[in-house]
Amino acid sequence: MVFFYIFAPMEKEHQIFGIRAIIEAIQAGATVDKVYIQKEASGDLMKDLMKVMKRENINFSYVPVEKLNRLTPNNHQGAVATISPISFFDLESLIETVLENGKNPLFLVLDGISDARNFGAIIRTAECTGVNGIIVQKSGSAPVNGDTVKTSAGAVFNIPICKVDHIKDAIFLLQASGITTVAATEKTEKSLYDVTLSGPTAIVMGAEDRGINPSVLKIIDEKAKLPMFGTIGSLNVSVACGAFLYEAVRQRS
Fold first, then answer.
1. Is this model's pTM higher than 0.85 or not?
2. CATH for 62
3. Domain region containing 55
4. Do residues 187 and 139 lie in contact, with contact meaning Cβ atoms separated by under 8 Å?
5. What does the pLDDT look like over 151-208, one tens digit per residue?
């Protein structure tokens, strides 16, 4: 049997196809963003891949074979992996660097943002507003793919992005570093314009469908919401994120 370890262009991202090739790439330390597995795939080699992905906490999902066929015309053997076009930062090291440089930290924590275009739009605004780093969870978060790069207008290459095992651990680390966490949520009576964002701050945004995870919300320092005067009850998450970030800019100016 022949196993493929080939990188192919895929709208400014790369892909690996073939089960053994993906296993080898993960073990070699490649920045594997996500693995797509054919539904009902089986076999010893597939079991080995699942073990490696779970051990390294690699984001994966089961998809129909038609999805894999669209991703690559090659013999994918039931698995295709996307390789991120960027390298991810270590959160603890990034926080230390920002503080050592005497900066007034502004971080952005994204809890469950899964749409690549929303992610890209948020990255673009974050870069424009001087955010020092974006924090996402390894599992369940949007991949850094061609759509992300395009929607961010290339900003994804100019801002540090950290992947963490658990958002709650990132929140605790930020707080221990003297950084106040502020959640964007409708589950509060406090307006965004009544919250202080001028000091070391990490703004936490949740997914459009469910918001911030309740277990995360419990440990946040401050909660704030945007005033809403129309008949629609919510904003697109990238728009809401922009409002929060530019209020931080206003207070810091």
1. no
2. 3.30.1330.30
3. 15-83
4. no
5. 999 999 999 999 999 999 999 999 999 999 999 999 999 999 999 999 999 999 998 7
